[in-house]
């Protein structure tokens, strides 16, 4: 028994010292040969909404090239933090950069190029057995989702006279998601403000299941989740107040007629990184070849004319934000903004 | 008579208490297996992440998780057992060590994401380890350290004082007593604590995301300072994808994670059995 203990403690000590030795060895090799390896890595982080596009582009880009692409998911805000300290080359964002983030980047000397890469629509859905709703107005959605509605607007009949006198069950994107932020800003008018008595989940599949199983349910989530489950859900048209009822589709989201629940999503490229040839090549690939991939992973590609403008913007290395640091602009299409 | 009835009732209550969680567990495992087993094949284990659910593999996650457990154990077990030996054997009666012991107890209840933030501040930024495997392992080690310390203290406390006194009476020094008498007697229970803590480390996601684990990486870590990903992060990513195929891919990932846990635990249990038999 003694021997076992002696041996095992020896092994422990040996393992520990070896560990340290290999660590030191690692560090020294990293500083010698690591520079070129690090330079060839394209580091991406940011929004979970943009992740599937970046993943698809990264996957295709690496075929036949020896570039390394790494992608993390720490959310739009988390990605911006890393971006503004120079830790990453590209940050995915499901909203435009905020004023505070611009200041932070400026103070650490990081210039950025803002590139819209796709549109994402937010779908408002009900159960297929729901036979009384075809569309809703933004005013009705506001009445239903605003913080004051809690405890007051509890039945379908409270939303519009004539609808059933049954309790309405609400499902919505998780309150930490960009989808929730955008929905509240577009519908309620104030970002991150809504009633609290709804089922919220960061996992949109949970919301899909919830609405699928409940005749009196209403929910909202990313359009990609609707298209994957279209047979089990009923999509509502939205009337933004001008009388035209529009359902989200590839066409209506891309041309901006699905208002106000469609939004552009972005990548931000650090100017310094953009000078590196592999990053230049990657971003151009992202913008050109990425169009088909955007569709494949469930988002909506921008019209070709807009993409061309975005590619020019990257080619010219134009820095700064088109959105003035004020967060999402509801209903603004990239076409309008780029045109300015 | 009354006592007998009470006895029976207690047995039934205990059985229900055992059966309910067990049934939940079986249902959960069954559901995951049902969805996931068909997805598991060799290429699932040896492929890199992909946007195609049927081509996505978890190689980087699997390798990352294995490295993480190994490094976490190497950092955490010597530190934790050492701290426990000091607290229990040397500093047993001092006010300071009692104060420390109480604090370690409450540290075990701190949410894991807080440890992630701590790891980000200390290991990633202050020590300049970057968003690397070693920073992740050090953070996980910090996270499970209280469990190792507490389990080890309990194990050492369970060693009868008479054994120590007998050895001391024979003229052994304190360190000799600990090394030849106390530690061997406490080893099986200490190992149990270590097994539990490593299992916890394998399943953690939140602190790793904060420390900077990646989600998409198509090369394996080539050193402890390399960027990395881990199984739970891959699974989390797949679960949240809209495409139907990813549900099965995620389930397959969960089965692999469970399998990894099972193998790790089995190895440790066998080791423990061997060590206690050798005594």
Please characterize this protein's 3D structure:
The complex is a heterodimer of chains A (340) and B (279). By secondary structure, chain A is of the alpha/beta class. Chain A contains 16 helices and twelve strands. Chain A has two domains: 190 residues, D-Maltodextrin-Binding Protein, domain 2 (3-Layer(aba) Sandwich); 134 residues, 3-Layer(aba) Sandwich (D-Maltodextrin-Binding Protein, domain 2). The longest helix of chain A is centred in the first third of the chain and has 31 residues. Chain B has two domains: 38 residues; 234 residues, MetI-like fold, CATH 1.10.3720.10. Chain B has eleven helices and one strand. Chain B is globular and about 70 Å long. The interface between A and B is large, with 49 and 39 residues.
Topology:
The complex is a heterodimer of chains A (340) and B (279).
Chain A: H1 2-32, H2 34-39, E1 41-46, H3 51-61, E2 68-71, H4 75-84, E3 90-93, H5 99-107, E4 112-126, E5 135-137, H6 138-145, H7 156-159, E6 169-173, H8 178-188, E7 199-201, H9 204-212, E8 217-222, H10 223-228, E9 234-235, E10 237-239, E11 245-246, H11 250-254, E12 262-270, H12 271-274, H13 277-288, H14 290-296, H15 304-316, H16 334-339
Parallel strand pairs in A: 1-2, 1-3, 5-10, 6-7, 6-8
Antiparallel strand pairs in A: 3-12, 4-8, 4-9, 4-12, 10-11
Chain B: H1 2-36, H2 42-46, H3 59-90, H4 95-107, H5 112-126, H6 133-157, H7 161-169, H8 174-203, H9 206-211, E1 216-217, H10 231-239, H11 245-278
């Amino acid at each position: 028994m003694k021997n076992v203990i002696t041996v095992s403690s020896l092994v422990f000590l040996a393992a520990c010292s070896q560990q340290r030795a290999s660590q030191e060895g690692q560090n020294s090799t990293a500083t010698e040969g690591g520079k070129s390896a690090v330079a060839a890595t394209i580091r991406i982080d940011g929004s979970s909404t943009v992740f599937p596009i970046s993943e698809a582009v990264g996957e295709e880009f690496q075929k036949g090239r020896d570039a390394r692409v790494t992608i993390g998911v720490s959310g739009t805000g988390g990605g911006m933090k890393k971006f503004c300290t120079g830790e990453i080359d590209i940050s995915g964002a499901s909203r435009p950069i905020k004023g505070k983030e611009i200041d932070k980047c400026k103070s650490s000397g990081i210039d950025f190029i803002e590139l819209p890469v796709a549109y994402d629509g937010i779908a408002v859905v009900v159960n297929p057995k729901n036979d009384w709703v075809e569309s809703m107005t933004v005013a009705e959605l506001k009445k239903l989702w605003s913080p004051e509605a809690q405890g007051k607007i509890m039945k379908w009949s409270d939303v519009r006279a004539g609808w059933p006198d049954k309790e309405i069950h609400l499902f919505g994107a998780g309150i930490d998601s960009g989808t929730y932020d955008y929905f509240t800003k577009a519908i309620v008018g104030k970002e991150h403000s809504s009633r609290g008595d709804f089922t919220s989940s960061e996992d949109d599949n949970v919301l899909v299941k919830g609405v699928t199983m409940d005749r009196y349910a209403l929910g909202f989530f990313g359009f990609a989740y609707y298209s994957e489950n279209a047979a089990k859900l009923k999509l509502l048209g939205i009337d933004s107040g001008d009388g035209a009822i529009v359902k989200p589709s590839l066409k209506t989201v891309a041309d901006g007629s699905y208002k106000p629940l469609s939004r552009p999503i972005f990548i931000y490229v650090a100017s310094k990184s953009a000078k590196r040839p592999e990053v230049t090549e990657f971003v151009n690939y992202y913008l050109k070849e990425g169009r088909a991939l955007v569709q494949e992973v469930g988002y909506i590609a921008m019209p070709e004319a807009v993409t061309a403008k975005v590619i020019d913007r990257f080619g010219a290395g134009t820095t700064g934000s088109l959105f003035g640091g004020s967060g999402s602009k509801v209903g603004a299409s990239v076409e309008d903004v780029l045109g300015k | 008579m009354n006592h007998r009835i009470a006895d029976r009732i207690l047995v039934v209550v205990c059985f229900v208490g055992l059966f309910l969680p067990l049934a939940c567990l079986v249902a959960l495992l069954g559901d995951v297996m049902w969805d996931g087993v068909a997805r598991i094949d060799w290429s699932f284990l040896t492929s890199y992440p992909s946007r195609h659910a049927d081509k996505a593999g978890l190689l980087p996650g699997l390798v990352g998780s294995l490295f993480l457990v190994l490094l976490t154990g190497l950092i955490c077990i010597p530190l934790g057992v050492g701290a426990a030996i000091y607290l229990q054997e040397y500093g047993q009666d001092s006010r300071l060590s009692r104060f420390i012991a109480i604090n370690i107890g409450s540290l075990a209840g701190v949410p894991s994401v807080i440890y992630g933030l701590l790891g980000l501040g200390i290991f990633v930024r202050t020590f300049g380890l970057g968003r690397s495997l070693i920073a992740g392992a050090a953070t996980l080690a910090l996270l499970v350290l209280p469990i190792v310390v507490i389990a080890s203290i309990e194990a050492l406390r369970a060693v009868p004082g008479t054994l120590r006194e007998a050895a001391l009476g024979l003229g052994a020094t304190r360190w000799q007593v600990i090394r030849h008498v106390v530690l061997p007697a406490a080893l099986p229970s200490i190992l149990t604590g270590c097994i539990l803590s490593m299992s916890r480390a394998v399943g953690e996601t939140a602190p790793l995301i904060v420390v900077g684990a990646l989600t998409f990486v198509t090369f394996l870590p080539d050193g402890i300072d390399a960027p990395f990903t881990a199984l739970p992060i891959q699974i989390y990513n797949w679960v949240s994808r809209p495409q139907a195929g990813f549900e099965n891919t995620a389930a397959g990932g969960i089965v692999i994670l469970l399998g990894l846990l099972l193998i790790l635990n089995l190895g440790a249990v066998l080791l423990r059995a061997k060590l206690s038999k050798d005594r």
